[in-house]
Design a protein that fits this description.
With 155 residues, the protein is mainly alpha-helical. It has one domain. It has 5 helices and 2 strands, in the order ααβαβαα. Strands 1-2 form a two-stranded antiparallel ribbon. The model has no long low-confidence stretch (mean pLDDT 91).
Length: 155
């Protein structure tokens, strides 16, 4: 199963943004009007699962606060579990959605450069780039699926 085109374009754009600067996890809850399903629970699930996929595939890492070397897989996955417990659309936005910073890895930077993603308009898909990203998903056991990868807390 392949990512739907709107999600592929959105994810491609977010990966590109991560190569420019680190962002907080709430980047993955944002989208242009009509770009993604507007249901808050859908957006929350998508954000958690796509951050998880990005970390598992080595496309993104969590900044450890001391340097840009990254926090490592354990700390990065701990953040994903925390994000799954905290609704980003609640009245009080929890710190895990705002800090720490998520950064592109060397692999992500290399793929963005290889496919010259900066020349694509926002919303335009670079098919070979997305195919390579989906291949990474498959290799790491986090292939695209409509089923959630990480269960959100109930409620």
């Amino acid at each position: 199963m392949k990512m739907p085109p709107n999600i592929a374009a959105w994810f491609q754009g977010n990966l590109y943004l991560l190569t420019l600067s680190g962002y907080s996890a709430d980047l993955f809850t944002c989208a242009k009007p009509g770009e993604l399903n507007d249901d808050p629970r859908f957006r929350w699930q998508l954000a958690v699962d796509m951050i998880y996929r990005g970390i598992k595939c080595g496309l993104m890492d969590v900044w450890d606060g001391a340097n840009k070397a990254g926090a490592g897989m354990q700390r990065s996955l701990a953040l994903v579990k925390e994000l799954a417990q905290v609704d980003p659309y609640s009245d009080s936005l929890e710190i895990c959605w705002l800090d720490p910073e998520i950064d592109a890895t060397e692999l992500c930077n290399a793929l963005i450069n290889k496919f010259d993603i900066q020349r694509f308009e926002l919303g335009e898909i670079c098919v070979p780039f997305i195919e390579e990203v989906e291949m990474l998903f498959e290799q790491k056991g986090v292939s695209w699926s409509d089923a959630p990868l990480i269960e959100l807390r109930s409620g």
